Amino acid sequence: MALTFTAPRAAEVQQGQDVLSIEGLSVGFGPAGRERIVVEDLTLAVRPGQVVALVGESGSGKSTTAHAALGLLPAGGRIVGGRILLGGHDVTHLGDKEFRQHRGPLVGLVPQDPMVALNPTLRVGEQVAEAVRRRGVPKRSVPAEVEQVLERAGVDNPGVKARQYPHELSGGQRQRVSIARAVALEPQLLIADEPTSALDVSVQARVLDVFRELQDSLGFACLFISHDLAVVDSLADRVAVMQKGALVEYGDRTQVLTNPRAEYTQRLIASAPVPDPVLQAQRRQSRLAS
Questions:
Q1: Structure confidence by residue, pLDDT tens digits, 248-278
Q2: In CATH, what number is assigned to the domain containing residue 107?
């Protein structure tokens, strides 16, 4: 997808409490007192109905930040500073069970690889039905609700796909099912970690269309992790730029992408592809000369 900057989105952000608030977060790996800090003193917030994109090159700390917000840091990782609030509640030091209970229907996850979220031994419909039932939908209404959720997520022939296993679907269809499963809970917050990076361009475009339609209709807040600035430009209200674990720029999407203040952000934008190779070379040269 080529990078083109558009006019500001007209999304109306509801007033009220932040759905996700990250305050001075630092995350380290390794023995206590000798940790390798991979996220340092990071602060950002996601309001109801808002899409905040977290961008940066591989290894910048984007996914670690998302995993910390979900209480899913890998072994050896822990929060060593700051705090995380979900729905106004401090979850920084909750145990795994308590964190899962609080996260419950509040947060949905769409990972880069849908097979991480989907159980390969269960049919697609069963997995979406599990999320639907957790929302309290009556048993007799679950099958119709499952089909409706799959259809809204852009799954072709949802009645047929519901009876299939994840490995029987294409990559794009699996990611749509992953999105359907996440939004079936009607979460207040969706965390999407590079959800289209493994898809080819045409499939990616359709998945993004589905994502936009669902976000507009359901109004969930979203922390969207990506390295693709074209994707970020098409979705985000605000953009947070990370470099080597630190937040180097944070602001309105239009301001960050068209008038970046940080040198690192300028380099990211200069390296993003545009359709005309001559224009791309000129733009990079202009950045280098500035």
A1: 999 999 999 999 999 999 999 988 765 444 4
A2: 3.40.50.300
